[in-house]
Amino acid sequence: MAQSLIEALLKSKIGLDANSIGADAIASAISQRMLDCGIGDIASYLGKLQASSQEWEALIDSVIVPETWFFREPESFTFLKHYVLCEWLPKNPQGVLRVLSLPCSTGEEPYSIAIALLEVGLNPTNIHIDAVDISKKCLLKAQRAIYHQYSFRGNTQLFQHRYFQLTETGYHLCEQVRQIVNFIQGNLLDNNLLADTLPYDVVFCRNLLIYFDRPNKIRTIKFLEKLLTPEGLLFVGHAETGLLLNSYFVSVRQPLAFAYHKPLASHPIKHADICLDNPVKNHLFERKLPLKNIILPQHTKSHISAQATKINTKNSTQNLSDNLLETAKILADRGCLDEAINLCNSYLRQNRASIEAYVLLGQMQQAMAQNEQAAQSFQKAIYLQPTHEEALTHLALLREHQGNIASANLLWQRIHRLKNK
User: Fold this and answer.
1) Which residues span the domain enclosing 315?
2) In degrees, to the nearest 5, what angle opens at C-alpha 78 toward C-alphas 76 and 80?
3) Which of 105, 127, 168, 307 is the most exposed place for a label (fewest CB within 10 A)?
4) Of all residues in the chain, what percent carry a pLDDT higher than 70?
5) Count of alpha carbons within 13 Å of 327, Cβ hemisphere only?
6) Model pTM greater than 0.70?
7) Are residues 104 and 180 in the same domain?
8) What pLDDT digit, counting tens, does each position of 178-210 carry?
9) Which of 261, 282, 311 finishes a domain?
10) Are 107 and 131 contacting, i.e. CB atoms less than 8 angstroms apart?
């Protein structure tokens, strides 16, 4: 009972879903803290936890095990450089690029961002990076900026020699990079977190959402949306891409970057623009209009099957078929996944070779936690086009999330070969 209360406290105070790391991991952290405090009874430990802010911080440090290294998922940093050079800098030649790293853990991510921006030629005076984490212990290590070889795994040594000095205590990060990053202790569930800051051009929020329950996932995504400038860039972890399927954000569709744009604000589309007799055209998606603002006519969902029975000509049937897929996309963006999946399946019954439909169906099934059905949909898309990077990437991420590392690695190798052809 006492552990359940502690799990409830972790959920209410920092948003941690016990299922994300497992009850055994939490029990182990509690046992270690009890041992450190010299407490033998868990009920007594609960009392200490409720009375002591220091003990609360210590438990958080025991529960949250930071797993980070420099330039983790390097494709994200490659795309960041591309974005800065090709999109941000031409519009802001004298501006200050504002970046947020949340959570920043022991500092490897925000320092990687700083190094990447210096590498593309930005002046330190034109870079502002805020790095936020709930753990005081992690922040102290980040501010010391002394690292060991494990923090450089998977990287070439070039940037290590350029920006670090090896001493007896480890690799010391140079002062130029350290001065760019501003560290902040903060709790994402605190309504006042970053309340007085200007919007950010880029936000890295990777491998945090997976630890939250659904309400806190939704709350966090809305918070990130608010923090970003229009057309700003959001990076998430590879296991979190499915969580943004129904959000305001638009995928940049750069393999392995796991990046999303916040679209420019726009006015809602009129009903006539998306009725069955006037289908949504592809240019709406190409212009990245926020599809969640599109208002569906009330009859679309309830009478779409009735509409189908009334249309007998070949051309009209094809128009309806096209509408099914477009309407499925809109419903998916609005969060109506059950209806969207039904429409997508109806479309596929008439268009069995549609790669686009199979990928969309797989994404929606994954968002509904129908992982095996999602895998089958991605596999069908890959069967139709073995070089389809998006389908391969989704399937690799799904297999990785399921713990099938061998299968995931084979898919990543396949994607890597395609990119290097």
Assistant:
1) 294-419
2) 70
3) 168
4) 83
5) 31
6) no
7) yes
8) 999 999 999 998 989 999 899 999 999 998 988
9) 261
10) yes
